[in-house]
Write a structure and sequence with these properties.
Layout (H helix, E strand, L loop, with lengths): L3 H13 L24 E3 L2 E3 L10 E3 L3 H4 L2 H13 L4 E4 L31 H16 L3 E4 L1 H11 L14 H6 L10
Helix pairs in contact: 3-4
Length: 187
């Protein structure tokens, strides 16, 4: 099956190359609908799973997943998306706008112990994040997040000026590791 994005890529390469040919990587999908086998790694221009099978990410932007759903609702959501072939989710680690009471999650847990205290994580908030990530991994899904963007937006909401620097200095430890004691997972 030829993907429309591949056609656009070929056309773009041809128009930019002024008649020169370009070699595209062969990253044919495995055709298997089963769960991703972690860890994922790069193999040349392709993303492959632990078995070495090429991986195509079929993703969904579930921006508010970490703050809008209970654990039971997360399980139902993941099962539904897995049945539809979704294997990647893009989420906000810190929700600045679309939670019921941003930046708190549905249970009312705050990501930090005090507004603007970006080096003092709220343990209940990140415990829920941990549970969601574990459930997604069991469902064979990879979860992607942009913690730097999340921190910048949370800083803005907390009244921290961000015009001088993309991430305020007091947010730097959080921007690089999500929160102290909470690091990006390699599942």
């Amino acid at each position: 099956m030829v993907r429309l994005s591949s056609i656009f890529l070929v056309l773009a390469l041809q128009s930019c190359g002024a008649g020169q040919t370009a070699t595209l990587p062969s990253c044919a999908a495995s055709g298997r609908g089963d769960s991703l086998q972690f860890p994922l790694r790069r193999a040349g221009a392709c993303l492959v799973d632990a078995r070495g099978a090429p991986v195509w990410l079929h993703g969904e932007a579930a921006w508010s997943l970490l703050v809008r759903l209970t654990d039971d609702e997360v399980d139902r959501y993941l099962a539904d998306r897995r049945a539809r072939g979704v294997n990647a989710l893009l989420v906000n680690l810190l929700e600045h706008k679309f939670a019921d009471h941003p930046p708190a999650n549905r249970a009312g847990d705050l990501p930090f112990r005090a507004p603007g205290a970006f080096t003092a994580p709220g343990e209940p908030y990140f415990a829920h994040v941990d549970r969601v990530l574990a459930r997604a991994a069991r469902a064979g899904m990879v979860v992607l997040s942009l913690p730097r963007t999340s921190v910048t937006r949370a800083a803005t909401r907390a009244g921290t000026p961000t015009s001088a620097a993309p991430v305020p200095p007091r947010c730097a430890p959080t921007a690089s590791s999500s929160a102290p004691g909470f690091s990006p997972r390699r599942t």
